[in-house]
Amino acid sequence: MGNCLSSDSPPAVEEQLKKLYAKYSKHLLPLEQSSLFSSLGDPPYSEADVLAKPMILMMGQYSTGKTTFIRALLGGREYPGMHIAAEMSTDNFISVLRGPSDDFIPGNALVNNTTHPFHSLKSAFGESFLQRFRGSYISNKEGEGSTDILDDVIIIDTPGTLDGSGNDRNYNFAEVMGWFARRSALIIIFFDVNKMGVSTEMKSVLDNIQGNEEKIRIVFNKADTVDERDMAGSLAGLRHNLAKSMPTPEVPEVYVTSLESLEDSYKTENKTFVEWFSKDKVKLLEDIRRVRFNTYSRKINILDKRARMVRNHAYVMMKLREEQRKCLTICRRQLRPQDTEKLINSLPELYKSVQQEQNRSTEEFISVKSLQDKLRHHDLNKLPRMKQSSIENSYRKMEQALTKFSTIQVKTEEK
Question: Is the pLDDT of residue 415 over 60?
Fold first, then answer.
């Protein structure tokens, strides 16, 4: 009888995610490699990427309240290495995770731990980035602030974007942000009511995280520090700046609140403002709660989005090779420098062509600027031979697998 009952019980989440990764390795990964997506777009997923707890990515310009909000989510506890100040204070990417004891881990040790979803950072961005990457372990200590959230998620704290272009960093900041964005379940972008501008570096980041719009939440933080007139002007200014800066025409909803704590306490007596800030804070916290307890479906959604991006990238590479062949003649079998530059400059038109011919959303492509930058370091004489039939065959098999997994009821994650 026990066996009969156990056969009817839903499978564990980890068991199903391992099977999901096996399907990814079999159907999608070969297309990623043959289309150069894994080198020009995004490194391949490892099993740890699929099995890992969901990531919540905190980003924004400096001193907008990212680290302060993380402290609030941790019940007031500071993670090892935390520093909060009015000037730029977080200059590392810090992964805040549950650990056996409170500890601060160097980037190299973190990426070499294959149980964590960070292994591909090393090959993608090198030692220069790892010098700016840290892990912060937090134990579950009794008698201190609740850090239960770390039982369910990994929180990524990031350096504030710079007012300039960020060229003085010794790693590609925007590309790193794109790596984390593609693997995150939720992306919270912070703006300060007193600093609603979008810097050149922030624009570059927004371009690199395109395709993840459904995960993005814009927070207009410290809203209780301005009066009604200043609030109206600041909010209108932010929306205008975002509309000009984001690569898609739709600007995500802006949550207007103050996240110094999770309590409904604000530095204003304006009851309308208090109700507004409270409502938006509740909505954001509910978004975070859903991330904590819907791991399985979100992993499927992330791989579904990736499958569409890989397919579209493969079509772009197919068209790029068609254009490459037009540059060659019987007497000239190698591209000239001007041919290479012409091909790279043609990418925006090739994107439009694929979007129109295949009826694809602009959100389902890797950043065209990112691809152009990477192709400048790639030998365009060696572009892959892609066939539509093989592209569609790989994509169809992956989608069929994802559809099947989405219908499976796993053991409830709600607590």
Answer: no
Bridging pattern class, strands 154-157 and 93-98: antiparallel
- Closest among 290, 55, 40 to 183, alpha carbons compared: 55
The residue to which tokens 């090959």 are assigned = 123
Q: What distance in Å separates the CA atoms of residue 397 and residue 223, rounded to the nearest whole number?
A: 48
pTM given for the model: 0.91
Residues present in the chain in total = 415
Give me the residue label for tokens 């069929």.
400
Amino acid at 42: D
Rounded Cα distance between 129 and 108, Å, is: 10
Which residues are 267's β-sheet partners? none
Q: Is 34 exposed, middle or buried (0-12, 13-18, 19+ CB in 10 A)?
A: middle
- Which residues pair with residue 399 across a beta bridge? none
Tokens representing residue 102 in the block: 């409170």
Question: Containing H/E element for 255?
Answer: strand 254-256
47 Cβ partners below 8 Å, 6+ apart? 18, 21
User: How does DSSP classify residue 56?
Assistant: E
Question: Burial level of 5, CB count in 10 A (0-12/13-18/19+)?
Answer: exposed
Asked if residues 251 and 189 have their Cβ atoms less than 8 Å apart, the reply is no
| Integer CA distances (angstroms), 194 to 34, 80, 224, 231, in order | 48, 29, 11, 9
Mean pLDDT, range 29-47, rounded to an integer: 97
For 232-251, what is the mean pLDDT?
A: 85
Please report which helix (H) or strand (E) contains residue 403, including its range: helix 388-406
Q: How many helices (H) and strands (E) does the chain have?
A: 17, 8
End-to-end Cα distance, the chain: 28
Element (H, E) at 128: helix 120-130
What is the sign, positive or negative, of the torsion defined by CA atoms of 76, 82, 83, 87? negative
- Three-class SS string for 281-307? HHHHHHHHHHHHHCHHHHHHHHHHHHH
**pLDDT tens per residue across span 307-324:** 999 999 999 999 999 999
Residue 138, beta-bridge partner list? 98
Alpha helices in 131-270 (DSSP H): 173-183, 200-208, 228-245
Q: Determine the average pLDDT of the residues in 7-29.
A: 91
Task: Give the pair of three-digit tokens for residue 178.
Answer: 């794109």
Rounded-to-integer distance, Cα 352 and Cα 397, Å: 26
* Predicted pLDDT at 2: 46
In this structure, the number of other CB atoms found within 10 A of the CB of residue 408 comes to: 13
